[in-house]
Amino acid sequence: MSSPAAPGRVVIVGASLAGLRAAETLRREGFRGELTLIGDEPHEPYDRPPLSKQVLAGRASPAHTALVRAPDLEATWLLGEPAAALDPHTRTVTLAGGREIGYDRLLIATGTRARPWPAAEEAALDGVFTLRGRDDAERLRAALAAGPRRVLVIGGGFTGSEIASVCRELGLPVTLAERGPAPLSGALGAAAGSVAARMQRAHGVDLRANTTVMALEGDGSGRLRAAYLSDGDVVEVDVAVVALGAVRNTEWLAGSGLAADARGVVCDAACRAFDADAVVTDDVYVAGDVARWPHPHYDGLLLAVEHWDNAVRQAETAAANLLREPPAPLRPHRGLPAFWSYQFGVNIKSVGLPTIADEVVVTQGAVADGRFVAAYGRQGRTVAAVAVDSPRWLPAYAGFVAANLPFPPDLHASDAPDPLRPVPAGLALDDRATHSPTAAVTGDGPTASDRSTHRDPRSPLTAPPL
Amino acid sequence: MTDTLFAQVLDEASRADPYPLYAQLRRTPVSRQGENLYAASTYRAVTALLHDPRISSDERKSRTGAGALAASGRLIEDGDERRPGFIFLDPPEHDRLRAVVMRQFTPHRIRLLGRHVETLVDELLDRRAGQTTLDVVDDLAYPLPVTVICELLGVPREDEPRFHVWATALARTLDPPEGMSEEEVARAVSAAAELRAYLVELAGQRAAHPRPDLLSGLLTDASGDRMNPPEIIATMALLLIAGHETTVNLITNGMLTLLRNPEALALLRERPDLITPALEEVLRYDPPVQFRTRTTLTDVELDGVTVPAGANVALLLASASRDPERFPQADRYEPLRQDNQHLGFGGGIHYCVGAPLARIEARVALGALVRRLESPRLAADPPPYRQSASLRGPRHLVVEAARVT
Amino acid sequence: MRVLVDLNRCLSYGQCVFAAPSVFRFHGAESLEYDYAPGRALAEEVRHAAAACPVQAITYAEEPSGE
Ligand SMILES: Cc1cc2nc3c(=O)[nH]c(=O)nc-3n(C[C@H](O)[C@H](O)[C@H](O)COP(=O)(O)OP(=O)(O)OC[C@H]3O[C@@H](n4cnc5c(N)ncnc54)[C@H](O)[C@@H]3O)c2cc1C
Ligand code: HEM
Ligand code: SF4
Fold first, then answer.
1. ipTM
2. Which intervals hold domain FAD/NAD(P)-binding (chain A) (predicted)?
3. For residue C67, is pLDDT > 50?
């Protein structure tokens, strides 16, 4: 890698999973120039998935989820201060404190943050939490360890459901309020959601589906005391966890001229950022939770995927492309979205994009046994699969999705229900769920600006009883 | 079917080096190899099929019968209580039986056995100390796993000569019927009956007087999904054969490979800790289980070929692990290979139950051979091979050394 | 030392649990949990676990790099 055109300085903004993986890939691919990582968190890169699982449950320390990193990275780490602005013409990143950092190539990997509770005074109550980073986990864990009378989880997406699961493991009474018809319904559909609902109830969660939290109320000293639900109930709680999905960290790009808005930064399948005129740049790249890109498998619709696996692979692709010297071909980022979670003692893995499905069918195992695989279909082809406590089948389904196998897939599996019973997936719900799904199609053009999409989570879908 | 590539693989003449045939087979990832027989040869095709729910391990679902079937249901007359071991079963039955066994296969139990492995290896090699030749098979690679599996299962070691014969006859039936003589089939049939009678009697003893072994564990399992007596017998037979006919080949193939690659041997003498990746590389480069057959439950299209329902498909694990599309320098033994996602223990739901145990045994045994043989060299290259094509390995591996220390 | 498992690749084969039971364990039937920062004394076990993983999902670094 000593071609004259090779970049001398690469700057990565966002020093977490995608940022670190990109940095490692750069070095592995032979980049010898200056490498700078800018991160607003004071910590070195750490892993987030355990925060809502073993860390919260007290089986691991929040300080002990640091990511493995290559020993010979030789990077400059600027931690604890956010990037505040980008000027792509002068190729400069400006930090909040005013310091300017020049680059030849830039990678944007600023990820997302937890969507806050919309009413600021209520969000500020003692006892109201969100969970995205290590410090959040530390605080929430301490609150749970103190033995609250009841915990309220607002939003039944993966994170909210995992938190509810940990509460039950800790023996804490927990209420989960979900605006959609069931937990996980935003990501996996109402049909799969009903399975999650049964599972939660079986584990003692006070599940309130089709219900929103209208208001949080504090006592005289500013401590959370109660929550008002759209079903008319008032629950007394000491802890509320706001799990309403994520907001993309793109504010710092305002005025940069890039196609960046609340839905993310738009890039092409080679991870090159678009500017606001839909012209692709060749020195700014994007990866991870903050990116939106046209996936070759999904008809060019822009995809946003908040999954660990995507962050890793997109970062690797972006880094390789960033170093590429023409005429070497660009690498497309085309792997299928894939996700794992575990909650209430079961392992849930998915591949493909359940959110675009119209139908779902159990293809192996039995829901009643708690072990099964379900395939998702859209207009007669298989687009996704979810495996519950059956991870070893999933690679085959990835193949089925990649090959556009007809839906329902005709597998004749030895453990298939007979007959197969496809049902509506329950996803065409027009953004009903309280949380945003973590992998979704987000529109079809790089310049379409954000007329934002997010409704106030407090407004119920139907009028609350007076 | 006389001269298909797969028939040549089965032919004993190819036993010492089937790899050039696999290379030819890989030119067509999925190919027809006989009346009702297909072969999957590339890494992509084999891994796809290992995880594919349209593929069955139950030979009874094949239109023609997949293996020579002695170890499976084929040798079981109707109404007989015998049933196939779970390696030959599909979900949900497979999953249930495997889960029961896994409850007995605890990390703790394996750990204790592992400690014993070190003593056993030392004892076995001490018997050859001071000498200048050694047969890797007879002196170490065979007696070690047999002793260990007997201990694990609770089968008296002194009965070994009896079930050795049965295990060999039954293991042979993992090869497709095309490769077997009528006489061998007959031998397998009687071996199955005798092994079963033996295990029934043993189970009776353990039921009356349980010991801290796996058989007693299965018999006294108090959980809701415990095995019934015929299932216990079938499982014991499976474990006994699997524990008998595989690890021996891993140790032997490993030593053979090291003797053919002196730089690797020298490296391991200097850095004994590298035995771990070196052993994984043996599992890729010269695996004890070369292929397994499956049956299609419906028409399956793969790499442009449609395999019809009820056909037999040989998953050529050993060929897949030599696929240059997946492994750079695939035909070279590289003890430090990175990203070694080999298929030596299979993959998917039938992934080898005994892998943790086999790894410990082979690591300790191979490590000791490397350490204790001074200036070793092969007496014969290639060595004589055992008959089986699927469970492939040398019958003897005589090594001449300056000294066994 | 540090350990990281790619839980998307992980298919819960459990080989790591056998090789290094004090680092890797199952939570429930199929969900792997592990210690991200095991003590140096466990390095050999972790090496065995990483080598044994059928899908090569385990990475580790013996020295936490202090840049
Ligand atoms: C609690 C929790 C549980 C999860 N569980 C799972 C799971 O089970 N399975 C799964 O697949 N995924 C899971 N995820 C998602 C996964 O962690 C994310 O997809 C992954 O972290 C994305 O990595 P990233 O680097 O793109 O973004 P992030 O991890 O969000 O990193 C972005 C970094 O950039 C920093 N930053 C933001 N703005 C600036 C700025 N202006 N200047 C400098 N730095 C900035 C942020 O502070 C952050 O450190 C979970 C996430 C959370 C929070
Ligand atoms: C080096 C030694 C070994 C090798 C290479 C090996 C290889 C394999 C392979 C490739 C499979 C997959 C079969 C298939 O997919 O159809 C398998 C399955 C199996 N092995 Fe091993 N094996 C070894 C040692 C052992 C030992 C020591 C035991 C017993 C203690 C054992 C017990 C089993 C069992 C029970 C299965 C069936 C699992 C199932 O169907 O779910 N193996 N082995
Ligand atoms: S060995 Fe690999 S696949 Fe198996 S549980 Fe461990 S990490 Fe997962």
1. 0.94
2. 9-315
3. no
